[in-house]
Specification:
This protein has 77 residues and is of the alpha/beta class. Helix content is 39%, strand content 18%. The protein has helices spanning 9-21, 39-46, 68-76, and strands at 2-3, 26-29, 51-55, 63-65. It is globular.
């Protein structure tokens, strides 16, 4: 689970966690704030692991399945 507000630091976290634990997927939180989730693109290039959920709020009910097409369309408008 990564905080989308950490930006490029997320890449370092993904690499470190993958080295230590062999990641099988990610959850990216705090996409309801100023973060647009562009770090997902950087992660996909450096360490392609599936993103299963995104967090768009403070509660467990605010987790949404990650749909790459929807994300890409929202990113470019």
């Amino acid at each position: 689970m990564l905080d989308a507000n950490t930006g490029q630091n997320s890449l370092a976290q993904v690499k470190a966690f993958d080295d230590a634990l062999s990641l099988t997927g990610l959850i990216l939180t705090k996409l309801d704030g100023t973060a647009k989730g562009g770090v997902i693109c950087a992660i996909a290039q450096e360490k392609p692991v599936p993103v299963y959920f995104i967090g768009v709020g403070e509660d467990i009910d605010d987790l949404r399945p990650f749909v790459a097409r929807d994300f890409a369309e929202a990113l470019v408008g």
